Amino acid sequence: MQGVIQFKRPTGTTVAPFTAQHGQIHRFFSEAAAPAENLDGRWAMSRVNVAYSPEATPGMLKLSDDGEVVVGASIVTTGDSRFLTGELRGNDLYMSTFCGGAGALWRGTLNEDGTLSGQSYSLSGGFIADWSAHRDAKATLADATKLTYIKEGYDGLEFSFPDLDGNMVSLSDERFANKVVVVAIGGSWCPTCHDESAFFSPYFNENKDRDLEEIGLMYGYSPEFDEASRAYRRYVSRYDIQYPMLIAGVMDKEAAAKTLPMINAVLVSPTMIIIDRRGEVRHIHTGFPGPATCEHHEEFKSDFYKLMDELLAEDV
After folding, report:
1. Are 172 and 158 in contact (CB under 8 A)?
2. CATH 3.40.50.450, domain 160-313, yes or no
3. pLDDT in tens, 140-157
4. pLDDT band at 10 (very low <50, low <70, confident <90, very high)
5. What is the phi/psi pair of residue 181, to 5°?
6. Pairing of strands 57-65, 70-76
7. Residue 196 belongs to what H/E stretch?
8. For the whole prediction, is pTM greater than 0.85?
9. CATH fourth-level superfamily of 2-135
10. What angle do CA 84, 228, 297 make, to 5 degrees?
11. Beta carbons of 199 and 305 less than 8 angstroms apart
12. DSSP letter (8 states) at residue 211
């Protein structure tokens, strides 16, 4: 099979040719080669994506190496690469991931000093980032609950956007009064948002009788309402989403920030804002640690369950 994959973005379309051969189970090479070292463990990472900023983004690589296959994820405070899979051939590292809507290739070299360095290539975005990493069992990330906040001069969160049928929905509507409300900022184009919805939707469906509400604020590629609505209906169906999904705007950080002037910035999708029964913003989490982040994902879920139980138990 051969053809092209087209990734449509507001700035244009990236076209990626592909070939595929049925029955082949290897990812990069049909014959194995001995690795120079085992990469299993935690690595402190620095990544520079000049398409966005000349400044380095700190993070970590979590790798699991069984001697033949290397799997893991690149993790920064605002999100993760999802599942990278590949191999170390001598000193040459090859890893990749593809989920239909996005994909990436990671190439690296195991250097003489034990560090890793290389480049990552975004299939869908068409950009290249430089990265380096060194072993660090204690590598950590910045606190994702401190990056996004309500600006001084504002009492809380307010908004009014159309749902998928064009009906206006406001946070001040009666249905949200005296309830704990989770506001999820995201978009159907965002792989990590899919991970978040796969977690949030079952949680909401199981707990909606506990005075819990959730609202999805979606920022997509198309400024056309009908086109955006069609895309989000597919998203809603895929994850059995039973809470309101609102069309909040387009996928542009500055434009998105203008729709929510009370927060300092829309740094990344997804971003989660939790509001208590009194309408007070109690928690904001920038990004979402998906399943590929292993213990970070489990820690997020544990903290989320605990916080929600506390807020749902509070009186108005």
Report:
1. yes
2. no
3. 998 999 999 999 999 899
4. low
5. -125, 125
6. antiparallel
7. helix 191-207
8. yes
9. Quinohemoprotein amine dehydrogenase alpha subunit, domain 2 (2.40.128.120)
10. 30
11. no
12. T
